[in-house]
Amino acid sequence: MTTPPSAYPIGTPGLPWGAAEVASWLSRQTRKRGYGEVLAAIERLRTDFDVEEYGQLDYQGERYPLVALRSRGWRDDLPVGLVTGGVHGYETSGVLGALQFVERHGSDYAGRLNLLVAPCVSPWAYERIQRWNMHAVDPNRSFRADSPAQESAALMGLVAPLRERVLVHVDLHETTDSDESEFRPALAARDGKPYEPDEVPDGFYLVGDSADPQPAFQQAVIEAVARVTHIAAADADGRIIRSPMAAPGVINYPVAELGLCAGVTRARYRTTTEVYPDSPRTTAEQCNAAQVAAVRAALDFALQRGGGR
């Protein structure tokens, strides 16, 4: 794990950021890759799936279409499976895993499940390999009424007509060494709070909903992913990222209360994946494959058990 700086280079310790600090932070953000590569991958899937633009970001004149894939031949009598990736733009396998799932396995669910896949919820952050959006707001704490994040508000608008019909939702994420070397120190500085170092778990884990944890569902996903990459162990206190481990590789959060993407629907089965791409025990390809395995296991379990609200 990279040791974080003793003091974040922006702001005054103990004081939350104002407009000047946000502007200073923004000035440090540079484009490192292109969202066009994601749009091109989506375009290649148009032969078998419907492509829908559900919004557009306009950040200082830079426009980013927000695009989702839908099952062709959508049927109102079928349940909905929702897959989201790239809510945090730096979490690469969430984006690539979602696209890989649609390309290789999406057609397997035709006639059984309507698929709705938003592979890159935060394209500005994707380009900058960043957690926050342009306004230093975390989209994955912003899925709530009057959201401060355009990305989150747009996705909520897309999902709103289907909210009661979604059977399963898989939100694809990563936990990286940069969480401790950059993003959590930046968060503490932004909020005027002390930074408290934590341990980055080595391996894959899931975050379920503490209000409806569905342990058998979470376990089915863990078992499928364990065939692809290793599962994170608890730390010395029996925790993963400061949360008690509910089962091997599983912790639970109050997802709706925290404004997390996993709380955007009332799906019976919902989970957030967390892949660890910085581990010496895995590869980028395995991380993508782990995301795909998680989605497939989640959809298969939900279809087998049913139980929509």
TrEMBL record:
Chain ranges of the Peptidase M14 domain: 31-309
Organism of origin: Luteimonas endophytica
The organism's place on the tree of life at top rank: Bacteria
Protein name per the record: M14 family metallocarboxypeptidase
Family (UniProt): Belongs to the peptidase M14 family.
Matching InterPro entries: Peptidase_M14 (IPR000834)
